Amino acid sequence: MVEIHKFKIYEKKFGYVNWLGAYSLWLKETKRFMNVWIQTLVSPIITTLLFWSVLNLSIGEYRGEILGMPFITFLWPGLISMSILQASFSHTSSSIMIGKLMNTLPDVVSAPLSAAEVTLAIILAACTRSFLITLLSIVTFSFIIDLTIHSISLLFIFTFLGSFVLGSVGFIAGLYADKFDEMSGIQSFIIIPCTMLSGVFYTVDKLPPFFQAISQFNPFWFVIDGMRFSFLGVADGSITKGLIYLSIFGVITWLISFILYSRGYKIKA
């Protein structure tokens, strides 16, 4: 007589947190952007260099000092910030969109991974991409300007907070959009304008009082200002307030992505 061993369905064998599964998903997402590294890593750096070069040649010598330094020195930290914010949003949003359109996202849903593990793994992969872009940008700019880093710890923190916030927003946008046209609209009319109009090219005191007040609640501005302080040691606002605000905003955006994914928003019928 053959004895048949019965196993309990959904019985976890890996503890309270599936570390191996979450790491595997993060690794898969990391390999996804590394396979097209020219598009995902090199392209943002080229765009940053083009912005910097054009503005340097056109108005760099004629623009006065900003925050006690030449305009072109004031500019490059903001351009790096802009590239990592757009890249982190692009990573998570495209990951979810491709999964929905290719019908591979249900495979992730059915895997033994909680909503927290899935959302964090994909968002942290976006953070990894942002850190690589930051590192490569620093190496690239060190050959053409006298690059300085005022605080490595703050540079790490603001890079992480900025990419985490935009990664979470990208995750939400990926769930919301049903096709790439909708995603392109979100990126073209919301994300790109917000990154370019949040202190990359100017200080907030140049804005009318109403928009100055709005900037105090703009997470893009806090990231760009924090990154600039990390490099140059000068800021347009409060660094402490920026750290607190971005930490709270990051938790809120992640919670929204977590709730939407756990409820199967636009994933399951």
Report on this structure.
With 269 residues, the chain is mainly α. The chain has one domain. It is 70% helix and 0% strand. Helix 2 packs across helix 5, helix 5 packs across helix 6 and helix 5 packs across helix 10. It is globular, with a radius of gyration of 21 Å.
| Alpha carbon gap, first and last residue | 44 Å
Please tally the β strands and state the result. 0
Shape: globular
Compute the number of structural domains: 1
> What does the largest sheet look like?
none
CA radius of gyration is 21 Å
Number of helices: 10
Parts with pLDDT < 50 across at least 5 consecutive residues: none
The class by helix and strand makeup works out as: mainly alpha
Helical fraction: over 70%
Mean pLDDT across residues: 89
How much strand? under 5%
Record keyword descriptors for this entry.
269 residues, mainly alpha, 10 helices, 70% helix, globular
Describe, in short, the structure shown.
The chain is an all-alpha fold. Helix content is about 70%, strand content about 0%. Helix 6 packs parallel to helix 10 and helix 9 crosses helix 10.
Please render the helix and strand layout as text.
Blueprint: H1 19-34, H2 37-58, H3 71-101, H4 105-110, H5 115-141, H6 152-176, H7 180-196, H8 209-215, H9 219-232, H10 239-262
Helix pairs in contact: 1-5, 2-3, 2-5, 3-5, 3-6, 3-7, 3-9, 5-6, 5-10, 6-9, 6-10, 9-10
